[in-house]
Amino acid sequence: MNTQITIAGVTFKNPVTTASGTFGSGMEYGEFVDLSRLGAVTTKGVSLTPWEGNPTPRVTEVYGGMLNAIGLQNPGIEVFCERDIPFLRQYDTRIIVNVCGKTVEEYVGVVERLSDEPVDMLEINVSCPNVKEGAIAFGQDPRALENITREIKSKAGQPVIMKLSPNVTDIAEMARAAESAGADGLSMINTITGMKIDIERQRFVLANKTGGMSGPAIHPIAVRMVWQAAQAVNIPIIGMGGVASAADAIELILAGASMVAVGAMTFSEPETVLRVAEGIEAYMRRKEIDDINDLIGLVK
């Protein structure tokens, strides 16, 4: 039984990774999860310089998931290269680095710094605010998405996966924009903008007012958007959004995802990511499917 999948020339032992921002670089989860059993570890967002993130409170539970407004807090690319990459290299797993920035130049700076590092793939978080364009996210304007994708591809030493924002009118248009600019693949979906109000205190729960919603409640939206993008482009998709079980992951694969990521569930049940990988294999045995690739996009 073959569970290997290949994206842009990179082969993964199985189609399961972690969702950026929910797993750090795996150091916090080492005692719960054998990272060598994963197809890849996708790191938390890495920026050119250290980011402090948003003021607190910045995380809250909501029905069917959670809201976060962490603000991509991270120690910057130099600490990441010195600390996180050597840690991950101890394990038999692929390394996907999530990259963030506030200008095209910042993204390119991180990508260039990583070009000679032993990482396998770059996931570009285009939900960051473009400070030169009135803080509209790069991933909400197809022209801005094309521009940043083209710039990053011209400098990258690894395959480039563009992580699309679901907070758009037409996800297929954004997928086509990334593909036309040379993206090697897509990653989707990022969190959905939400809000929670404390009715007793009559104020916003999050200091940022809004936050990104993740968790099981957004899963049907993720399946729909992955399917729409898969119909629109010919590049591979890493699907995510509310994956809490192998069944959720298989839905995304059938919709067109080549690989899946587990995110919010790792906070409450870190071993979910391993159960998903094992569950996909069990499903393949039950359905007598010899190759995981035969399932990708099966439902048209």
Written overview of the protein:
The chain has 8 helices and 18 strands. The chain is globular, with a radius of gyration of 18 Å. The chain has one domain: TIM Barrel. The chain has helices at 77-88, 104-114, 142-155, 171-180, 219-232, 246-255, 265-268, 272-286; strands spanning 5-7, 10-12, 16-18, 40-42, 59-62, 65-68, 94-99, 121-125, 129-130, 136-137, 160-163, 185-188, 192-195, 197-198, 203-204, 210-214, 237-240, 259-262. Helix 4 links the parallel strand 11 and strand 12 (185-188). Helix 2 packs parallel to helix 3 (142-155), helix 3 (142-155) packs parallel to helix 4 (171-180) and helix 5 packs parallel to helix 6. The longest helix is centred in the C-terminal third of the chain and has 15 residues, at 272-286. By secondary structure, it is an alpha/beta fold. The strands form 5 sheets. It has an 8-stranded parallel beta sheet with strand order 3-18-17-12-11-8-7-4.
